[in-house]
Amino acid sequence: MRIALLDTYYPRFLAAHYAEHPHLASETYRNQRQNLLDQAFGTSDFYSRHLQAMGHDAQDLIVNCVPLQKALAHEHNASYSALAMKLPQRLLRLPVLGRWLSMLPGLVAIAVEQIKATRPDVLYCQDLWFLSPQKLAELRPFVKLIVGQIASPLPPDGYLTGYDLIMTSFPHFAPRLQAIGVVSEYFRVGFDTRVLELIGSVEKDINASFVGGISRHHGKALPMLEYLAGTTPIEFFGYGVKSLRQSSPIVARHHGEVWGLDMYRALARSRVTLNRHINVAENNANNMRLYEATGVGALLITDRKDNLGELFEIGKEVVAYSSPEEAAELIRYYIAHPVEARAIARAGQARTLREHTYQRRMEELVPVLERYLAKRGK
What we know:
Layout: E1 2-7, H1 11-20, H2 29-37, H3 48-53, E2 57-62, H4 66-75, H5 82-85, H6 95-101, H7 105-118, E3 122-125, H8 133-139, E4 145-150, E5 165-168, H9 173-179, E6 184-186, H10 194-199, E7 206-211, H11 222-231, E8 235-237, H12 261-268, E9 270-275, H13 289-295, E10 299-303, H14 308-311, E11 319-321, H15 324-336, H16 338-355, H17 358-377
Parallel strand pairs: 1-2, 1-3, 3-4, 4-5, 5-6, 7-8, 7-9, 9-10, 10-11
Helix pairs in contact: 11-15, 13-16
């Protein structure tokens, strides 16, 4: 199969990365894209690399990166919106404005032309907001199968019905999507072993951590995180701290944003790390942190969910909590009992490296795509 993997990266990550590497924007499209993929942000090349190893032509399209797409347009003499391309990267750091700016017509137009030129068998979209229903319809003659993947709040129905198939790591989303006439299947995320090669040996010098965002989607978790900041030695990494009041106990323990490999290093440095799901997950375990934390060898303390036991053995491979008080008790206990903590962390890592790698996930995904491609061909 020829597969185009459309993805968008957090604008704050892109702005920070290009600011740190000011000469990157003048590089070729190929060099810029490889540099971004080497940062292991999001799903990086975790799909394409394994799909290519299986014999498929899979290409990553990072469609909201202004310098990258500008280089593509320049190299192929494509027209694009001067407004979109001249936007200061600092504007893209703004959480709400950054998402809106990343979908300006210039960037969307370049992505659409990129896909038309590729003429993939499968267009696999990791961001269901980027292409409007009209753009999906425009692409229909150039793509055999249009697939989306989602593990976040759903966009309006009009953004969903243009897909032939939507994959989701939320078990409860599949039947909801099917109820509005959208074909959907359950598909878990995972961990890529390349990360271990990229981060190398990491000293465990953080007793307990929380690595993640604090936003409106995480509103129910904020009181718990503030409680843990006051009752345990937990350290915080991620985005969103500026949205907190200065008196929040999290602020004094917060070490700033970490993206890609820096995020993995923060997890790898942690003897114990806390996970919590966004509100829309409801009572289902699904997020990437489950596999990222265990994959790098941290003891994962995660919120108890109905299906967690299907992914890991609770108490032996991960530890689960049902309240802020229980989470605090578990953090303190495993800091005080490092031998037990190491044993669970090792078992959790072994489970992830055995069953939850992206190599395994792509082996699961390919037959699904082939089946729906065959249906479209009838």
